[in-house]
Amino acid sequence: MDTLNVSWIQEEEKLMSLDSIPEKEPLRSVQIRCLFADIDGTVAHHDKFSQELDVSHPSGSILSKDILMGIVETAKRKYAPKQYSLADILVWNTDIDADALDQEYTTTPTFTKGSVFRDVVFPPSLFIFHSVQCIYIILSEKPQSVLVRDKKSATKKQVRFVDMRVRSTRKQPQRI
Questions:
Q1: DSSP symbols for 39-70
Q2: Which of 14, 76, 89, 148 is the most exposed place for a label (fewest CB within 10 A)?
Q3: pTM over 0.90
Q4: pLDDT (tens digit per residue) in 104-142
Q5: Nearest 5°: phi and psi at 12?
């Protein structure tokens, strides 16, 4: 029998106790959104899922480059007839101190450029912003080459090189 998910009750209790100054907490999971753009630039497909993070590092919660690369490679093959390539990775990270909640937040950009060659690090943040932390993976469709033919229509042609110094007679050809 499945267990009942009551994590939302804990979130509600935290929200109700906001009269005290909240402390920053490590991010346990992050939303990943894959956007698939057609050749003309319109979004053809989009996927959304949650990915668990490694919270054992002192610098914050980490999504390793190996896991990120695996996610990108899986996403590239998801819509098989079309081929997609990685266009960009954007990380949305809201890192505001509790003291700055009542001030206008305009000092630091929250979008940063990500890479499959680096780990994505999320520093501890206020729990009320955990649900908006996100990684956007943007994939663009590769145009098909004009030179690529259908494999069924391709024919094999064999070319044989003959020694031109061979005399042609009715008898067996003699090689010189």
A1: TTS-EEEEEEEEEE-B--STT-EEE-HHHHHH
A2: 148
A3: no
A4: 555 555 788 888 899 999 988 888 788 889 999 999 998
A5: -65, -40
